[in-house]
Amino acid sequence: MNRQHVDILIIGAGPAGLAAAIAAREDGIESLLVLERESNPGGILRQCIHNGFGLHRFKEELTGPEYAQRDIDRAKELEIDIECDTTVLAVSPDRVVTCISREKGLRFIEASAIILAMGCRERPRGALCTPGTRCAGIYSAGTAQRFVNLEGYMPGKRVVILGSGDIGLIMARRMTLQGAKVLACVEIMPFSSGLNRNIVQCLNDYDIPLYLSHTVTDIQGRERLESVTVSQVDAQRRPVPGTEMVFECDTLLLSVGLIPENELSEGAGVQISPATSGAVVTDTFETSVPGVFACGNVLHVHDLVDHVSNESFQAGHAAARFVRDSHEEKTFLRVEDGEGVRGTVPQKIQVHPQEAVTLMFRPSGVFRNASAVISCGGKELLRRKAMIFTPGEMAAYTLKPDAFDGLDGSEPVVVRIEKGAE
Q1: How far is residue 296's CA from residue 15's CA, in Å, rounded to a whole number?
Q2: Which among 263, 343, 338 is positioned nearest to 301, based on CA atoms?
Q3: Do the beta carbons of residue 251 and residue 267 sit within 8 Å?
Q4: Which residue of 77, 257, 302, 363 has the smallest Cβ count within 10 Å?
Q5: Do 148 and 174 form a contact (C-beta atoms < 8 A)?
Q6: pLDDT by residue (tens digit) across 186-203?
């Protein structure tokens, strides 16, 4: 039987997996292996040829491939073993990974620690239950991005985009620059789910209308998409009769949310958060299964790859410590979402954390002149005011270790948004 053992095994060679591998190697881990199902490392960044990456981490503006190449080059300098064209089939609770590749066949790899960095996937049309025909010309925004940027194909000439996620906004600009006519971007919520800078740079700068509180209610076309019907929706997101608009188009791009790729995590027995669809983790990014860590978009969907890298560096260092150190029983503080907050990560914090802890969450709606408040029992740990909170931009607040002095784990840490005066 084809078996081997490594100290740390990382699943995924995108920005999260590469950063975690670099951190673990720099922390002294020699027996290290990264598995990647694609033919090249770099993950989704390979097809993101627009700029805007690296401003936080490198203090300069890079394209996606340029950002990825820096980590690929660093991994090469550190002689990190990255095996591409390798698919992971299963991860067991006792940290045995089953994988397969054309070159090495079926293998079982035992690891002292595993880092899950599989990224996320796009929500498909089937999850939307949109009525209409099943014609050609309907793509997820990421698929269209791959066609245009990596494979050199144009999906169509007259385009409607459903959803205002960042990939959809960026593809509105990209399709326009390639000669297509983008007729509209349609969002069912009363606010955009993308970054404000992308709304300005990708829609406003090209006079592409954004219809908030609207959705696609019908799809017409036999062989190829011919038109879509867009309707306004009410507060319960139900179509309002009499508000229908018909757009004649040959392409519909779906930018309706990302889902962490957690099938392998669930198979390993990792506890999954219903709020984030990612793993429940501690402040060291360890999951409910000892020795299994998670980072990047498989943990929770990020706005910026810079934050993915920062989080993954921490996960890599934590996995290295797990391999080296004795595993003592720890007491944790529970982290709970309060009013106006959804999907805080991490969900557990050590009672006496050794390092600063960054709590990240998404607001559940739009709040103006409000404050983010983090408290435990009667103790207020942090209060920060902001002009606006919006679901399209993740909020992050860092607490120093001494903020947790005097807390024993009997009360949860609650993160909430406190509304300001109107």
Answers
A1: 8
A2: 343
A3: no
A4: 77
A5: yes
A6: 999 998 888 888 999 999
